Amino acid sequence: ASDHPSIHIEQGYRKVLLSSEPANGMQAFLGVFAAEAGTGELPYTHGDSQEWIWILEGTVLVTLGEATFELHKGDTMEYRTSMPHGLRNYGTGEANVLWIVTPPTV
C-alpha cells in the first residue's frame, strides 16, 4: 500500500494511483475525501473515456452536467469523462471512492 503514489489535489482530497504505470488500457484510483472536501468548485472533463466509480465508504454528491446524485457506500455510477463532472463528500466522516477509467486519460 505504501508504494502507491499519492497526490494531494484539493484541500482535504488526495488521489492514490492503484494501477501500474504506464497505464495499459485502464487506470484505477482511490479518492480519499475529508468531510466536505471535493474534486473542486467547478465540474471538469478529461478526454472521452468511460469512467466508473464505486463508493467504498461515506456519502458523496456527484455532479454530472446539470444533474446531482447522492451516492452511498456500495453505490456505483458510470459516465463519459467528456461530461462535466465533480464529486464532493456530503457526509461528516471520510469518504473513499474507487475510480476506474478506460482508456486512461492521463
Write structural notes for this entry.
With 106 residues, the chain is an all-beta fold. 0% of the residues lie in helices and 52% in strands. The protein contains no helices and 9 strands. It has strands at residues 6-10, 13-17, 27-33, 50-57, 59-64, 67-72, 76-80, 85-89, 95-102. Strands 1-2-3-9-4-7 form a 6-stranded antiparallel sheet, with no helix packed on it. Strands 6-5-8 form a 3-stranded antiparallel sheet, with no helix packed on it. A hairpin with a 2-residue loop joins strand 5 and strand 6. It is globular. The chain starts with 5 loop residues before the first strand and ends with a strand. The mean pLDDT is 91.
What is the gist of this entry?
This protein has strands at about 5-10, 15, 25-35, 50-55, 60-65, 65-70, 75-80, 85-90, 95-100.
Please provide the ordered H/E string of secondary-structure elements: EEEEEEEEE
Name the helicity range.
Answer: under 10%
Oligomer status: single chain
Structural class: mainly beta
Please list the strands of the largest sheet in the order they lie side by side: 1-2-3-9-4-7
Note the total helix count.
Answer: 0
- Give the number of DSSP strands: 9
Global geometry: globular
Distance between the termini: 21 Å
Uncertain regions: pLDDT < 50 for 5+ in a row?
Answer: none
